[in-house]
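Chapter summary example.
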Amino acid sequence: MKIIDNELIERLAGPAAYQRGLDYFRNGHVSEISKRGNTITALVEGTETWQAKLKHTASIFEGSCDCPASDGIDFCKHCVAAALAYMEESAQESKLKKAKAKDRLPDYLMTLDKKQLVALAMELLEGDHPRKRALQIQAEMAAGKMNDKAIKKQLTGAIPLNRHYHLYSQVRKYFQTTEAVVDNLKSLLEQLPASKTLELVDYALERISRALETIDDSGGFRYPVLQTLGDLHIATLARSGLSPQQLADYLFACYNAPAHNFYPEIPASYGAVLGAEGQRHFLAKVSEAWEQLPPLTGPDWKRESHYRHLMRPLLQQAKADNDQSRVITLLAKIANDFHDYLNMAMLCLENNQLDQTLYWHKRAEAATQRPYNYKTALENSQLAIWLYNKNYSAILDTLWRRFSNDPTMEHYLSIEAVPEQPATTDNPQKAIAILNKSIGVQKKDRYSQQQAINTLAQLYLHHNRSAEALECAEKWPIATDVLLDIARANKHLPDRVLPLIFRVARVQVDQGDNKGYKAAINSFIEGQQIAGAHNGDFQRQLKAFHEEYKRKRNFYGWMREAFTTLL
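The structure predicted for these 567 residues follows.
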């Protein structure tokens, strides 16, 4: 294996990041170091808990992290802390191997009496709450003290409220404890009468729902215990002996409970339990509650959320039945703002309901609260209506105006897609005239001019006018992706194309990250393939470029690996 030391780690991270990482390591912020093959992972606690990943082989030692500073690429302070911990652990392992002490600890423990072992175990359990709770449950079971009331007490203790946890390490530990308790109670819950088990599972899910009001589980640590409780809930209903109607009534109550999001998806996950009759009854219950609701009005997020939740199974069923009329009726009830009105207009148009389309379009026009891009959204809706009515001239007028104001390739392609255009139409020439005018306008903002230049080059490429696209590239600055497309379209002109390759590579390297370095090397590989008889010129320019960026160590080294015969 490649020898690692403090000097190597500091060289990879830089002095500042190395010092901060050294502080993390010395203060014990590194945990859960694991090694699989050549990959080492560790958790490092800073303002949040981040995962550092190291790779150690005979020839390389490198690292990355999921923190913003590393972005999965750079060797950050968290990588430094993890590397120092890994180096220390490796040294300890090496020392133990040489001592051949694998049997020393078991032999020592065998010399202790029961009291000493119990004292040692209790001391260790103080730092391992999940295991302590699990053993406590086993002790209660051995004493015959575990009934439904005792189980509820255990669940209450395992799911405490008002904890205000936000760090990953805190939340992970919280749900590890909950998971350990639920796993140990599972066999007991399976033996209770179904009604008692359902009551306890409902209670556990309701506690988790309330606990999450003050816990930030953006890391998703709750999901394993929710999976266990959900599987138990489904299995318990299957053995409950309830009729299809009773099952549907019970699940409808769960569906409307505050903790409804924590059950398996209702009714989809309970299809085998409900059966066809139970599913019909469940949908009838939902439909009955839905029909009692008035149309949604006014901005009220909580109320709208309730409407959408109640509508969801009805909408799923309507789509499964391909009942578009039902879909439209359901969505019309919650249409409540500008976007809803336009979505309704498009849905009605797709289903050949032109009168309803116009109705919803007018409601969108009359909406008082509209987003910043409402004009474009209304225009798109109007274009769809014109297309339905085959009013192609109105469409073209609008699209050309849009292209003049915002000359992008996307807008040009939408013009080309309009059907039944006269055979004499010269869309490319008209677009080129607009673009040249836009490029030549004095005092035009730089972004708009650059966009027009990029679009002009793309338009030439789109119409197989590669020579004119190349002239654009030689005359103006152009986006790197467009430059590469121009180079590929003009491979037969290596003396003119190779400068474009070097322009692209310079922009990519100047990004200053490994992703940009690798992109530049790929660009040079393309350049080498294009060079042909000009390979000597390419090699000279490549050497000069390589020397110019020798301070970018990763790029410098990767270039030597990629072009061993040229550098």
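To summarize the output: The radius of gyration is 34 Å.
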